[in-house]
Specification:
By secondary structure, the protein is of the alpha/beta class. It has a single domain, classed as 3-Layer(aba) Sandwich (Rossmann fold). The chain is built from twelve helices and 14 strands. It has a seven-stranded parallel sheet, sandwiched between helices. Helix 4 packs parallel to helix 6. Bound molecules: sulfoquinovose-uridine-C1,5'-diphosphate (USQ). Sulfoquinovose-uridine-C1,5'-diphosphate binds next to helix 8 and strand 10. The site of sulfoquinovose-uridine-C1,5'-diphosphate (USQ) has 21 residues, from helix 8 and strand 10.
């Protein structure tokens, strides 16, 4: 299939591009380097430096013999978007191209408005481009488990049957996001659902949990093909951060009571979930929603596992609860369904000690690059933050 990956330079976009290319698809990536630019502005350097997209495509071709085309430009610029869609005419569009950080979205007013403007316009332009240039194309959109929040009832996959005063109707599962970033993803889902109803688009919306790791089948032994790996408070996700903290001899930053529970997945499973979704398209006029994670952990569970894996490697790992800068439940019920992707054939990779030690091995090679200054700065969710 011809597959266009929006946000193809990102933590997950680039590994997805290589994976789909390795599986015989014709792949193009689009990015405007927003994520790199914001990280530089916030002095949140990555664990290691990476080449830009044209060079990454060249390295991939040298390694695999397969070609990936790159387009550099802004999804919020309609003329650019129209040009790319007219030229490439994708059969599937994988949409990662958003400001992806919850803490960034809560930093200050300008960061909040950038998140709203970028994320909603990028999604709207994707919808308009599909309608104009490839109306039968399947949009595979990265949403987040954070759209649901942490309700005190089971979380279903996207939809909920409601019986009210003797009548029944199926609705989008109620959403109550915990950051502005997560709220833009809720709004994306609403935009997509509206245009699915109006224009019979084919859409899969993937409610993904936090992802960990950097190694995939495509980049084994090829550090230049690794994805971005952030460990700072703004762009790093919790498990990747904890491994870096353990290596830097920085006490693991458990926020508050540490009972916050989420659904996690290995980066390899992200790639398989995307490929399975792309290769089994949603029907025209269908908004298909999958909950994309393979196992749930509390923050305390993750800290304990990282401590134990680190100690096996001879590191002295301390866990420290600190005042939670976020507004979130620290002890709560959490039971989300996640059978849709398993039914499509997903074979999960679980978080074993061996997997953790693989991440440790790469982080240890870059120990000198770790800057304690960006590990914790305390971006507050509260009004007075
Ligand atoms: N946490 C800590 N200590 C830390 C960092 C995080 O206790 O040093 C806690 C947070 O308070 C939260 C949990 O760990 O309860 C997860 O935080 P996170 O920073 O790993 O993830 P989050 O901000 O929710 O966002 C990440 C990705 C986002 C994706 C989301 C999936 O950045 O793009 O949408 O995970 S989910 O969390 O399921 O909404």
């Amino acid at each position: 299939m011809k597959i266009l990956i929006l946000g193809g330079d990102g933590y997950l976009g680039w590994p997805t591009a290589m994976n789909l290319s390795a599986h015989g698809h014709e792949v193009a990536v689009l990015d405007n380097y927003l994520r790199r630019k914001l990280a530089t502005e916030e002095e949140s350097g990555p664990l290691y430096d990476l080449p830009e997209l044209a060079e990454r495509c060249r390295l991939w071709q040298a390694h695999s013999g397969k070609e990936i085309t790159s387009y550099i430009g802004d999804l919020c610029d309609w003329d650019f978007v129209a040009g790319v869609f007219q030229t490439f005419t994708p059969e599937a569009v994988v949409h990662y191209a958003e400001q992806p950080s919850a803490p960034y979205s809560m930093l200050r007013r300008s960061a909040a408005t950038l998140t709203i403007n970028n994320n909603l316009l990028a999604t709207a332009n994707t919808i308009f481009a599909v309608r104009a240039f490839c109306p039968d194309a399947h949009i595979v959109k990265l949403g987040t488990m954070g759209e649901y929040g942490t309700p005190n009832i089971d979380i279903e996959e996207g939809w909920l049957d409601v019986e009210h005063k003797g009548r029944k109707h199926k609705f989008l599962y109620p959403r109550q996001a915990g950051s502005l970033y997560h709220t833009t993803k809720v709004m994306d889902t609403d935009l997509l659902w509206f245009y699915v109803r109006m224009w019979d688009l084919r859409v899969t919306d993937l409610m993904q949990g936090p992802v960990y790791g950097m190694m995939t089948d495509e980049n084994e032994g090829q550090p230049d093909l690794y994805p971005h790996f952030a460990y700072d408070e703004i762009f790093g996700t919790v498990l990747n951060r904890f491994v870096v903290q353990a290596v830097a001899n920085y006490p693991l930053t458990v926020y508050g009571k540490g009972g916050q529970t989420r659904g996690y997945l290995n980066i390899k499973d992200t790639l398989n979930c995307i490929r399975l979704s792309v290769e089994t398209p949603a029907d025209a006029g269908e908004l298909r929603i999958f909950n994309q994670f393979v196992e749930t952990f509390s923050v305390n569970d993750l800290a304990g596992r990282v401590k134990s894996a680190g100690e096996q490697l001879g590191l002295d790992v301390e866990i420290k609860s600190i005042d939670n800068p976020r507004k979130e439940m620290e002890e709560h019920y959490y039971n989300p369904a996640h059978t849709g992707l398993l039914d499509l054939g997903l074979e999960p990779h679980f978080l074993t000690e061996e997997v953790l030690q693989g991440i440790f091995a790469v982080v240890l090679q870059h120990k000198d690059r770790i800057s304690d200054d960006c590990i914790f700065r305390g971006v507050k969710w509260s009004r007075t933050g």
